[in-house]
Design a protein that fits this description.
Elements: E1 2-10, E2 14-16, H1 26-36, E3 41-44, H2 45-51, E4 60-63, E5 74-76, H3 79-85, E6 91-96, H4 98-104, E7 110-116, E8 124-125, E9 134-142, E10 152-159
Parallel strand pairs: 1-6, 1-7, 3-4, 3-6, 4-5
Antiparallel strand pairs: 2-8, 7-10, 9-10
C-alpha cells in the first residue's frame, strides 16, 4: 500500500480560500479524475463538504473527529483506521485538505501536483516541498486557453 497526495497549488502554495479552490481549471479536474478514479480517496470533512458529494468510481473516506454520516462515504476518525479500511489497495490518494497535507506529506510515497503558474490570495496552503527528497517521474506543461485561465504544469514526484 502506497500513500499518494494529489493537489493543485499556485506558485505561492495556495490550495484554497474560504473552503473552495480559488480557480476553475477543467484541465486540472481531468488530471485529478484520471489519477484518482478506481482508487480510494481520503479527505477531511471540510474538503468533502466543499466537493458536496462522493466522488464516483472511488471509495470515499472522510476523516472527522466527530461521527459523520452521508450516503456512499466511509467515516473514519483517524488516518490509521482509514488506511486499515483500504489496506488491500495498492495506492491510496489523499486529496485534502491543508491540515491533512501538512500532517501526511512526510509519509507520502508519491505526489501528483498541478502547479498553477500564478500567485493568488488564499487561506489554505500546501507545505513546502523539499526537492532533495523527491524525483520527477512525469512532467507536462499545459498552456492557458479559453477554458483554463492559467498556465500549469502537471507533475508526478516519487520519494527518493
Amino acid at each position: 500500500m502506497h500513500l499518494s497526495l494529489i493537489v493543485a497549488m499556485t506558485e505561492n502554495h495556495v490550495i484554497g480560500k474560504d473552503n473552495k479552490m480559488p480557480w476553475h481549471l477543467p484541465a486540472d479536474l481531468a488530471w485529478f479524475r484520471r489519477n484518482t478514479t478506481g482508487k480510494p480517496v481520503i479527505m477531511g470533512r471540510k474538503t468533502f463538504e466543499s466537493i458536496g458529494h462522493p466522488l464516483p468510481k472511488r471509495t470515499n473516506i472522510v476523516l472527522s473527529r466527530h461521527p459523520y454520516r452521508h450516503d456512499n462515504i466511509l467515516w473514519k476518525e483517524s488516518m490509521a483506521s482509514a488506511l486499515e479500511a483500504v489496506k488491500n489497495d495498492e495506492e491510496i490518494m489523499l486529496i485534502g485538505g491543508g491540515e491533512l497535507f501538512q500532517q501526511y506529506l512526510p509519509q507520502a510515497d508519491k505526489l501528483y501536483l498541478t502547479l498553477i503558474q500564478t500567485e493568488l490570495e488564499g487561506d489554505t496552503f500546501f507545505p513546502p516541498i523539499n526537492e532533495e527528497e523527491w524525483q520527477t517521474e512525469f512532467e507536462e506543461f499545459r498552456a492557458a486557453d479559453e477554458q483554463n485561465p492559467y498556465d500549469c504544469r502537471f507533475l508526478i514526484l516519487t520519494r527518493r
